[in-house]
Amino acid sequence: MKFSVQPLVKPLRTALLPLMAALVLAGCATVPSGLPEIQTTAQFKEQGKEQQQQGATPPAGFTRAVPAEAQPRGAWWLAFNDPVLNSLVEKADVNNGNIQAAAARLAEARAVARSANADRLPQIGLGAGANRGAGLDKATASTRPATMTNIGATFSYEVDLFGRLSGASKAANLDAAGREALLQSTRLAVQAEVAQTYLQLRALDAERALVREQVEAYRDTLRLSQRREQAGDIAELDVARVQTEVSSTESDALALDRQRAQVEHALAVLVGDSASSFGLSGADWSTTLPSIPPGVPATVLTRRPDVSAAQSAVLAAQARVGVAQAAWFPDISLTGAAGYASPEIGDLFKWSARSWGVGALLSLPIFDGGRREAGVQGANAQLDGALASYRTQVLVAFQEVEDQLAAIRTLQEQSVVQAQAVTSAARATSLSDTRYRNGYISQLDLLDARRSELRNRRQALQVKSAQYQAAVGLIRAIGGGWDVPAPVAAAGTAPTTVAAR
Length: 501
Fold this sequence. Notes:
- Residues 44-63 are annotated as: Disordered.
- The protein is α+β, with helices and mostly antiparallel strands.
- The protein folds into two domains: 31-120 and 162-329 and 370-500, Up-down Bundle (Outer membrane efflux proteins (OEP)); 122-159 and 331-363, Outer membrane efflux proteins (OEP).
- Helix content is 58%, strand content 11%.
């Protein structure tokens, strides 16, 4: 009797056609590479305005920015020439909890990357075992219970023909690079927050001193008013008005004391100290306000750690798309074992008990219910999200720089006008005090003049504080200090796709 298998061949080939087509499509699929091109001006808009006002011509044309995430950002806080600020920033670098947590996440990402890299290397191990059962000795065909002992070395290696392991390793390394950039971003953010909090504290000290000085001036006026009341020159109503100003100004001073205590406690947390043991004494506000050089190029944003982290996230997502596509190809593994095996422990290490074996395994799922296709779709979706996040991060970086440059420009103009207002208010107070003592004006006129002077002096201090805050904010926005050398492209280094005009 003959059995024909020919009818089964055609259905089998037909069943394998979709699989072959999928493998061909997967092999032809290309993983998108590079970063999206985002065209920006080579110079920030606010600095272009300044150059135009000075008669200079802003640069034109397009320039590609070289990646500069490894470029040193400098000890930018030294530009403020404040030893207390220097010590606080250095202390925060060591003790701040957010920096420590970011460093721990970086260490974790590096460990994952090392694990992914290890999958590409041969795996070698030692093993030993003992089995007892019937029929283990095939040579004698005995059915009596026996014990089989073995010891030896094992070897396994997955042949990465289609780049699945290398893609996974690349993605893990890019994740680690992104974590390193995020650590730098966290460190820069903490340094900037320490500087801004410290400068806010010094501004509050100056404002408190001003308000306390005004309280003493009101008290002098109160004592004068009380003497004049006793002499019958003024009514009790005038004394009550001055007493109201004294109490109201003292209340403002106490509110500033409360605000300073809260800012000091926040600074303690930033530098890693307990608010109960941390304290900064009041001091003169002698911190230098650094000047921003004209023509800071927009390419400095390529060293911003968060932009660098967004770039690494895009590249890692691209690598994972390749890993997902490689799942359509078969996995090929090579295995080997060599050692000794014997039913008697005493004969285990005899030359006659040696054993070895080699093998190869090819694995390819035929039907997985759409799991691999879903993996490719998920990887592509993650890539789309990473690209969108990268573009948004770049645009936000430009927004932050433009915001701070606009603030610095307008605050400089405001400080000039406000200084004029302080000078005029001080002169008006001096004249009003003289005329009041000589009886030419009423007490209300004098109080109005003092209130106006105090208001303008406090406003001037607030403008000055805002200038310091904007300077630190600009440094944070551009990713560090501006006194750094221009990056030099290494051989074979591709420029980033953030184009600049």
